[in-house]
Amino acid sequence: MNLFHHWLCRSARWRKTIQQRVPWVLSGADLGQSVLELGPGPGLTTDLLRLTVRRVTAIELDPKLAESLNSRLCRSNVEVITGDATAMPFSDAEFSGGVSFTMLHHVPSPELQDKLLREVCRPRAGRSFVGSDSIQRLLMRLIHIGDAMVPVDPDTFAVRLEAAEFKVLEVEKNSDAFRLDGNRRHGCSPRTSGDGDLRRNSHESRHTYTEFDVVQKHSLARCHFRKRFPNDVRAGCSRFSALLRKLREPAAGFLDWRLECDLSRHAG
Question: Are 85 and 38 contacting, i.e. CB atoms less than 8 angstroms apart?
């Protein structure tokens, strides 16, 4: 991951997002008490997951992230393993369930993503697998500049889960992310629910425009901007505008100083 992405995954903003998303993903899931987490990264999701089960084993590909997370949680109910989730070093039936939070798009190809799903479906990850991933947006592409990013299409993901031999599955999405449920429940059929079905779900994010308004003092212009551009474009424009303001402040100070010098020179 690039430096900005590393920072974002540890930020308070992302932690707040995770605090909403993890309960949504885990709702209704029967993972048991020994859970495997795929790709925990810095471990913000692990911090929440470990409060709900007796034991968590996290497998992380990045050695530095794995070492950092292991050092931080070494005295807890979490064991961190450095390894590849597409070829996991665990024995069969070692875990009661598996989870994946916003990491599938980091797997560098659709073929490896499918291989990971087949690996998870084996008995080594238990009978249940739930997870989530982000839906592709402009801001997401900007964040991943220089990173491996292979977006996962929630509208076709149910078919891929079936191909990985998940018998019962559910793919649920909102404007920012989707949730997958690979629990094997008898008598259910795969379904993909759209945005309309999620309005009853408390997780569905509601954008607050106060943070993303580029023009803050002119309400009419602000309303027009909201209607004309999608949320991720507004966010990018806001960050660019903030950068310009930071660059403008020292320049304005310098010009004021030059003006004072000129006035004093003429006055003298």
Answer: yes
d(CA 37, CA 95): 10
Residue carrying structure tokens 């980091």 = 106
Which pLDDT tens digit goes with each residue over 232-249?
Answer: 545 555 665 565 555 555
Q: What is the dihedral of CA 101, 107, 109, 112, to 10 degrees?
A: -90
Can you give the residue ranges of every domain in the chain? 3-205, 219-267
Mean pLDDT of 198-223: 33
Give strand ranges (E) for the chain.
Answer: 34-38, 55-60, 78-82, 97-101, 128-134, 170-173, 177-181, 191-193
Q: Is the pTM of this model over 0.70?
A: no
Cα 160 from Cα 182, distance rounded (Å): 11
CATH no., domain 3-205: 3.40.50.150
